[in-house]
Amino acid sequence: MTKEKRPPGKNGFKYREQYGVLVVCRDARHQEQLYNKLKAAGHKLKVVTV
Fold first, then answer.
1. What is the percent of the chain with per-residue pLDDT over 70, rounded to a whole number?
2. How many domains is the chain partitioned into structurally?
């Protein structure tokens, strides 16, 4: 599969597609446990609290 290269936008921003999965945790402790488990498995993670 070939990816089409696009020039940067007028402001110089280069859009890069990303994919993710959001997991809803029971509480902060569950979030921390799951984060540590996934991080140890080699996943790139971002923590979000809403």
1. 94
2. 1
19 Cβ contact partners less than 8 Å away, ≥ 6 residues apart: none
**Residue 50: inside a domain:** yes
Instruction: Give the Cα-Cα-Cα angle 2, 13, 8 (nearest 5 degrees).
Output: 50
Q: Which domain holds residue 40?
A: 22-50
Higher pLDDT, 32 or 50: 32
Identity at 10, one-letter amino acid code: K
d(CA 49, CA 31): 10
**pTM over the 0.90 mark:** no
Cα Rg of the chain, angstroms: 16
| CA gap 47, 5 in Å, rounded | 30
